[in-house]
Specification:
The chain is built from 11 helices and 41 strands. By secondary structure, it is α+β, with helices and mostly antiparallel strands. It starts with a helix and ends with a strand. Bound molecules: 2-acetamido-2-deoxy-beta-D-glucopyranose (4 copies). One 2-acetamido-2-deoxy-beta-D-glucopyranose binds near residues 368, 370 and 374. GO terms for molecular function: chemorepellent activity; semaphorin receptor binding.
Length: about 700
């Protein structure tokens, strides 16, 4: 982080505080039911399971499993302790593993057919599994050699995924001590695995899995999402690509070829690419299936979260893939020849019939194929050698956000529409709500959840709430219905979800068709602001200052914004933000317009989203300090101290550093893009929220119940 970056930002924070005089720096802390965490002593919580039959939330952490009431996150049973013995830990460390990795990290919790909970843990680099009786909440370990192999990684840090279909467990995980072999398995009943003699996978990082039902007569399918090396592109450099793979629920393996191995395994590339910028997002973080019409699995869309392949670049993108598009590629795409080492070659062999990877359905049964067992060897041999399709499943991002790393995504649908509400967890322990209407992504809320900064690693939807988990805490936040938007401005943003501000009740309510007629949801807020007529913000500036003007639009979709400003040489647009180095010629009127195509609430004309008036500060009033001094790093630090004190923070150098560092990060992200980068809290002018300088009228942070 360059000092220049740091100083500019801290500098700016102070400037804005001085010039507006009203900056209130709040460190938002949710109403944590404090102290409970210490009693529990739980760390490294990583798996959450909601058992709908008993309204119980199971949580797997390091060496323990908890059972909580989902509705209020209170304890239902005393926790189960399941630690690796000292001997096993010693043996693990003896094999050269770090002490910290030689605990029993719970990595899998799933409900089985008989109602018991199946649990696995990394168990000091020797994965073990067991069964939990949900009534007594006691653990019975599963007997047998290597029962955990292939279900959980040996290394607790390696990614993996699991899902149950009709109470039968399917897993995708590294399957050996070194983490170099990988398997996708049906772990119980008709056990089926991958064929390890051929490279069906290349260094995969499994992210998510899902069961998708089919109509009667067809076989249900299990989908797996992961990132792996693209061996089809280049033999010498590593290119990571995102894949979706699927197997049939009824696949029992072949009779001669592919015995007890998947006969239906197929994979295809998922492409998430912004056509305007040409940018590809290639590293998949999470995927979540949402039925757009309840009870109709064919309406499933997968909401997927991507980040860039380049380390250190903080950027997140959301791409959505319809099941219909994925199914089409699996059903009609060409097969890639993996034997011949040529780039982009389709297979020269003709595709056998029945088509490889096809699940047994009524059609095939009519032809005498009752199960994968009946499939001819030539079909299975072809399937074995051609797991990858040449066609890709393509999508353009609905949302791109720089400076924010999202770690988890879930989505809920909005009644009878194609609109959806996304719940995104960040690596900083925040929950963000984003509405998707048409192709427009609008930021509604940013909710801080934990007092310590930890990544969100689980989000579950339960009765109009989301339960959000991170390694040491759990929160429950209401997300459903218009009433969760507690300010008029936020409610106006949620207009696309059918929300409207009721002036009498001073609450956000679901609108009636009559009210929907009133075209400008912002008008009722009484701020003088209209949808495309923001209040002009007056900024008092000094010569030589660097001021960053946000474009103040809540859209996170990749949309172009254009600035109009006085002819100044020292003006630079960083994506949607404008950086102005103040000189005599830079005083005057600045405005930003964004086009919002497809957003019915804005119309199709470019919309004025922010306007500023820059006027010269009268030094005799506030300029107690020589402007020249403000530019020196010493003053920057003093400024930060002042600001720190105001924030009511610890005042320690550590904090100061963090503040500056965070602020610098903010600059950096603004420099890189800025699009939607500083949506913040409170509609009361510039605010510091979690040490971020925010200059927009954006959603109010809101706290939920928290424990641990
Ligand atoms: C467990 O948590 C500790 C403390 O937060 C962390 O340092 C460690 O890396 C975690 N271990 C694993 C395997 O995630
Ligand atoms: C939490 O919810 C459960 C059942 O939903 C109830 O039995 C219990 O009393 C509740 N606990 C508290 C502290 O509210
Ligand atoms: C498939 O099942 C049908 C009815 O159960 C049976 O008549 C037929 O012989 C079976 N076909 C094969 C190839 O096993
Ligand atoms: C989607 O909307 C329908 C219709 O209002 C609702 O009943 C259903 O619960 C929603 N489905 C999902 C999967 O959330």
């Amino acid at each position: 982080m360059s000092l220049l970056n740091m100083s500019t930002t801290c500098y700016m924070a102070v400037i804005l505080w001085l010039t507006t005089g009203s900056t209130r720096c709040q460190t938002a802390i949710p109403n944590v039911h404090g102290g409970v965490g210490a009693v529990l002593g739980v760390s490294n919580a990583s798996v959450l399971l909601q058992d709908p039959s008993s309204e119980t939330l199971y949580l797997g952490a390091r060496g323990s499993i908890l059972a909580l009431h989902t509705s209020n996150l209170t304890w239902k049973h005393p926790s189960i302790k399941w630690e690796a013995t000292e001997k096993e830990r010693k043996s693990c460390m003896g094999k050269g593993k770090r002490e910290d990795d030689c605990y029993n990290y719970i990595c899998l919790l799933e409900v089985l057919k008989d109602g018991r909970i199946y649990v696995c843990g990394s168990y000091a680099y020797d994965p073990q599994c067991g069964f939990i009786d949900p009534v007594t909440f006691t653990l019975v370990k599963e007997e047998g050699d290597k029962v955990g192999k292939g279900k959980c990684p040996y290394d607790p840090r390696q990614p993996h995924t699991a899902v149950t279909a009709d109470g039968v467990l399917y897993t995708a995980s590294p399957s050996n001590f070194w983490g170099t072999e990988f398997d996708i398995t049906r772990a119980a009943g008709q056990q089926v695995r991958m064929d390890q003699s051929i490279n069906w996978l290349s260094d995969p990082e499994f992210v998510s899995s899902a069961l998708v039902r089919e109509s009667p007569g067809d076989d249900d399918k299990i989908y797996f999402f992961f990132t792996e090396n693209a061996i089809e592109y280049d033999l010498y450099t590593k290119v990571r690509v995102t894949r979706v793979a699927r197997v049939c629920k009824g696949d029992v393996g072949g009779s001669k070829t592919l015995q007890k191995r998947w006969t239906s395994f197929l994979k295809a590339q998922l492409v998430c690419r912004d056509r305007d910028s040409g940018q590809y997002y290639t590293v998949l973080t999470h995927a979540y299936p949402l039925e757009h019409r309840l009870g109709d699995p064919s309406s499933t869309h997968f909401y997927t979260l991507f980040t860039s392949q380049w380390k250190g670049e903080r950027v997140s993108a959301v791409c959505v893939y319809s099941l219909a598009d994925i199914t089409k590629v699996f059903a009609t795409g060409g097969f890639r020849d993996m034997k011949r080492n040529c780039v982009n070659s389709g297979s020269s062999e003709s595709v056998p019939d029945p088509r490889p990877g096809q699940c047994i359905n009524d059609d095939l049964r009519a032809q005498g194929y009752n199960s994968s067992f009946d499939m001819p060897d030539r079909v299975l041999q072809f399937a074995k050698e051609h797991p990858l399709l040449t066609s890709t499943v393509d999508a353009a991002p609905l949302l791109v956000r720089r400076g924010t790393t999202y770690t988890r995504i879930t989505a809920t649908n909005i009644s009878n529409s194609d609109a959806a509400l996304l719940h995104l967890g960040t690596d900083q322990g925040e929950l963000h709500s984003v509405s998707i209407v048409g192709r427009i992504a609008t930021l509604l809320q940013e909710i801080p959840l934990t007092t310590s900064v930890e990544p969100v690693n689980n989000i579950l939807i339960h009765q109009g709430h989301v339960v959000v988990g991170s390694p040491s805490s759990l929160s429950r936040v209401p997300v459903e219905g218009c009433r969760v938007y507690s300010s008029c401005q936020v409610c106006a943003r949620a207009a696309g979800l059918g929300c409207v501000w009721d002036v009498n009740k001073r609450a956000c309510v679901a609108d009636s068709p009559v009210q929907r007629e009133s075209e400008d949801p912002l008008k009722v807020c009484g701020t003088g602001e209209g949808r495309c007529s923001p209040v002009v913000k007056e900024l008092r500036v000094k010569k030589g200052l660097v001021v960053l003007l946000p474009c103040d639009h809540p859209h996170l979709s990749p949309l172009p914004c254009v600035w109009e400003h006085p002819q100044g040489r020292h003006t630079q647009q960083h994506h949607s933000h404008l950086e102005v180095t103040v000189s005599g010629s830079s005083l005057g009127f600045y405005s930003c317009r964004c086009s919002a195509q497809g957003d019915y609430s804005w119309g199709s004309e470019p919309c004025l989203t922010a306007s500023y008036q820059l006027i010269m500060e009268d030094l005799s009033v506030k300029g107690r300090v020589d402007p020249g001094l403000w530019r020196s790093p010493v003053w920057v630090y003093i400024s930060c101290v002042l600001l720190g004190v105001l924030v009511g923070a610890l005042g320690a150098t550590v904090f100061l550093k963090r503040l500056c560092w965070r602020a610098a990060q903010q600059t950096q992200l603004v420099d890189r893009n800025g699009r939607g980068a500083n949506q913040g809290q409170q509609g009361r002018g510039p605010t510091c929220y979690e040490n971020k300088l925010v200059m927009s009228d954006t959603p109010v942070g809101q706290s939920g119940e928290s424990v641990l």
